[in-house]
Amino acid sequence: MTITVTNQKPAVLDALHAISCTGDYDPMPAIQQTLVDPLLEPLSPNAPAAITDGSGHDLTGGIRDLVMRCLGDTVDTSAEKTVKELLGQTLVHFDQNTTLPVGELFAVQAGNKHGLPAPSPNVLYHANNAVIPAAKELLAGIGEPSQFFVALAYAYHPDTLGFWFQSSAAFDGFKIWLTQQVQTMAPALPPETVRLLNDFAGLSLKGLTESLLLRKDDTDGNDEFSFARLLVHMLMSYVKHQQSQAASGHSAIPVDVGALPFSVDELFCPRSLVLVNVEAHARATAATVTGEWNLINQSLASPVKVISHTALSKLTSLPRAAARAAAMVAGQQHGQPGSRSAVVKFRKQPPSRIDLLKDITRVLKRMGKVNRSQNVFRTTKATFLKANRRNPDDFNKPGRITSVSYMPDLHVYIDTSGSISEENYQEAVLMLIRIAKKLNVNLYFNSFSHLLSQETLLRVENKSMRQIWKEFRKVPKVGGGTEFKQVWDYINSSSVRKRRLSLMITDFEWPPPAARVDHPANLYYAPCSGMDWDYMIRSAETYADSMQHIDPSIRQKLLGMII
Question: Which of 36, 162, 238, 253 has its CA 20 to 30 A from that of 326?
Answer without folding.
Answer: 162
